[in-house]
UniProtKB/TrEMBL annotation:
Name the record gives this protein: Folate-binding protein
NCBIfam families attached to this UniProt entry: ygfZ_signature
SUPFAM superfamilies for the chain: Folate-binding domain
Superkingdom to which the source organism belongs: Bacteria
Length: 340
């Protein structure tokens, strides 16, 4: 089973410089309201076996209450979705992290055979909230205690069922709540400072959460996107296994995800996506770009092997060139990490 994502308490200086609001993690905490999300239920005795074969995570030892992050990939191990799996007594709930759950439902339905004891239920809508900070302090007003790592549980709050998920999925301390779709926030949580849309988008890039259609696409595999923790390296046969195994066995990974930052605003950037070294050699490509709330611009990029240790590269388009600072995203994990 892949290692859990790190839940860091001491944040690196570069991260706090990019998003000073994260200093609140040492105090009252922060809240992110993601709005509505649809969960896909799988029911039946073969549900975990089916998901074990259709996604990258090792589910062989999963039990009711387990919470596991996984990647849904195609036969050539290219990304379809990043998901969390909430194991239930009779199957699992699929929570999309990045991806369209209705597309996953269509794909899963195509691969369920008549003999399989598994069925897809109707989508269940929830309101998803992430609490950043000390989970014990954040959950105390709800008369709840933190759940163990890699797990989830249901509790009753104001006569309504609330699902509490361990961890934030962002490499930061905290937890997540799945509330009824029209449920107001519990009063105590409404007192927390909330990250606005711009800050939330920046945070997702800082931790390396791939964007749908940019980084998370059928052009890229989980290892390149820093999602090695979603891959069970020792599990049995599953969709995409052969490709992912070869990438590890033959050290064949060619690209890695990086966060980049430029002092120049978006209009001043070259239009092309080509990254260069100081001598003009090709190093990779920018995959996304966004205006930074504090000025300048930022985004994610895929860097070729020759540039993995670089801290600065050039975004170039003809004679127009801009320097980009690079950081490894906070929550990223690569196959080579276990070899360091």
């Amino acid at each position: 089973m892949a290692a859990p994502e790190p839940e860091l308490m001491t944040l690196p200086a570069w991260l706090l410089a990019e998003l000073p609001e994260l200093a609140a993690l040492d105090g009252p905490g922060l809240l992110i309201d993601h709005g509505s999300v649809d969960l896909l239920p799988l029911q039946g005795t073969d549900s975990l076996r089916f998901l074990h074969g259709q996604t990258t995570q090792d589910l062989a030892q999963a039990v009711a209450g387990s919470l596991l992050r996984s990647s849904a990939v195609n036969a050539s191990a290219r990304m379809l979705a990043l998901i969390d799996l909430l194991v239930t007594p009779d199957g699992a709930l699929v929570l999309p992290v990045v991806g369209i759950v209705a597309h996953l439902a269509t794909r899963f339905d195509r691969y369920i055979f008549p003999a399989d004891q598994v069925s897809l239920g109707a989508l269940q809508r929830r309101r998803q909230v992430t609490l950043l900070g000390d989970p014990a302090a954040l959950l105390a007003p709800l008369a709840a205690t933190p759940v163990p790592a890699r797990s989830w549980r249901a509790l009753t709050c104001n006569s309504e069922e609330v699902l509490v998920l361990a961890g934030t999925g962002l490499g930061l301390p905290g937890c997540r709540l799945l509330l009824p779709p029209r449920s107001p926030l519990p009063a105590a949580l409404g007192l927390l400072d909330a990250l606005g849309h711009e800050a939330q988008t920046l945070l997702e890039a800082l931790v390396g959460l791939p964007g749908l259609g940019t980084e998370l696409s059928e052009d890229h595999n989980p290892y390149a996107l820093g999602l090695a923790a979603t891959v069970g390296r020792d599990k049995g046969c599953y969709v995409g296994q052969e490709t992912l195994a070869r990438l590890v066995s033959y050290d064949g990974l060619r690209r890695q995800l990086r966060f980049w930052r430029a002092a120049e605003p978006l209009p001043a950037l070259p239009r092309g996506d080509r990254l260069l070294d100081s001598g003009g050699g090709r190093l990779g490509q920018v995959t996304s770009r966004t205006a930074h709330p504090a000025g300048g611009s930022y985004g994610l990029a895929l860097l070729r092997r020759a540039g993995w240790s670089d801290r600065q590269v050039v975004l170039g388009d003809g004679d127009r060139r801009v320097n980009l600072r690079l950081h490894r995203p906070l929550a990223s994990s690569f196959p080579t990490d276990s070899m360091d």
